[in-house]
Amino acid sequence: MGHILFAIHGSHPCVAVERALELKRQPYRVVERIPAVHVPQQWLRFRQITVPALELGNGERIVGSRAILRRLDQLVPAPPLVPADPAARERVLAAERWGDEVLQPAVRRLFWVGVGRRPGAFASYAAGSALPIPDFAARMSLPFIGRAARWRHGAGDDRARADLDALPGWIDRIDGWIDDGVIGGEQPNAADLQIGSSLGMLSTFADLRPLLDARPAGELRRRLFPDYDGEMPAGTYALTTRSAPLAASA
After folding, report:
1. Do the Cβ atoms of 26 and 72 come closer than 8 Å?
2. Whether 134 contacts 181, CB under 8 Å
3. What is the mean pLDDT of the chain?
4. Domain ranges (residues) in the chain
5. 3-75, what's its fold?
6. pTM above 0.70, yes or no
7. What is the b/e burial string over 67-77, where b = at least 16 CB atoms within 10 angstroms of the residue's CB?
8. pLDDT beyond 50 at 243
9. Does domain 86-224 have CATH number 3.30.110?
10. What is the pLDDT of residue 144?
11. What count of other Cβ atoms lies within 10 Å of the Cβ of residue 9?
């Protein structure tokens, strides 16, 4: 029996888990959730409110991308998502943890700030969704979804500015890991998936794409996550002064 992945379409940690299932050649199907609406749905089924969540074919339930990747490695050892060598394993797990705890939430905050400024971009991120939501319904629900998401993820002006300021240094860090062989090898590991999926989302932000394109981090993204729904228009993140707030209220 196949697994069931509960996900939000385009969510970078969900994309990372789906790629891991593909690498492990595991049968699965996706149950899509709607942002913000997913909170009570996930609580009722998993007693946690986040995605991704995976229900294995045997009924076991796991929540969170890192926990899911560890469990997949236990169930299907090949190809491994973390190295067997203890030192290499620790380096990969440290990079994965940073990708999960630092890069992933920052990209999520920038997304919701961007949608606050450019509501029309939201539909492009749902282009490949299997949910039968008419465009007018998506437009009507966006003010509620956007406000709830920005509140929940702390996606305000000051935090967005700090994330944008930190981004060049973060890309330098990723390039350094590639140079050191921690990520970017022939066989993707857990850190590749965690970081690469966030770079996939980041590459849809027209203002920020030039930071990636000519870098090793950009090549990593193109190799692992070449197709990513959505386009945040140029100019979304250009206004960063306190007199010109980044996130307009939806």
Report:
1. yes
2. no
3. 92
4. 3-75, 86-224
5. Glutaredoxin (3.40.30)
6. yes
7. ebbbebbeebe
8. no
9. no
10. 82
11. 20
The percent of residues above 90 in pLDDT, for the chain, comes to 80
Strands 61-63 and 28-33 turn out to be unpaired
Q: What secondary structure does DSSP assign to the chain, as a single string?
A: --EEEEEETT-HHHHHHHHHHHHTT--EEEEEE-TTTHHHHHHHHHSS--S-EEE-TTS-EEESHHHHHHHHHHH--SS-SS-SSHHHHHHHHHHHHHIIIIIHHHHHHHHHHHHHH-GGGHHHHTTT--S---HHHHHHHHHHHHHHHHHHHT--HHHHHHHHHHHHHHHHHHHHHHHHTSS--SS--HHHHHHHHHHHHHTTBTTTHHHHHTSHHHHHHHHH-------BPTTTTT--STTS-S----
Residue with tokens 């749905």: 41
pLDDT (tens digit per residue) in 97-135: 999 999 999 999 999 999 999 999 998 998 889 887 767
pLDDT in tens, 37-58: 888 999 999 999 999 999 999 9
Residue 201 phi/psi, 5-degree rounding, is -65, -45
Question: Tell me, what amino acid is at 102?
Answer: V
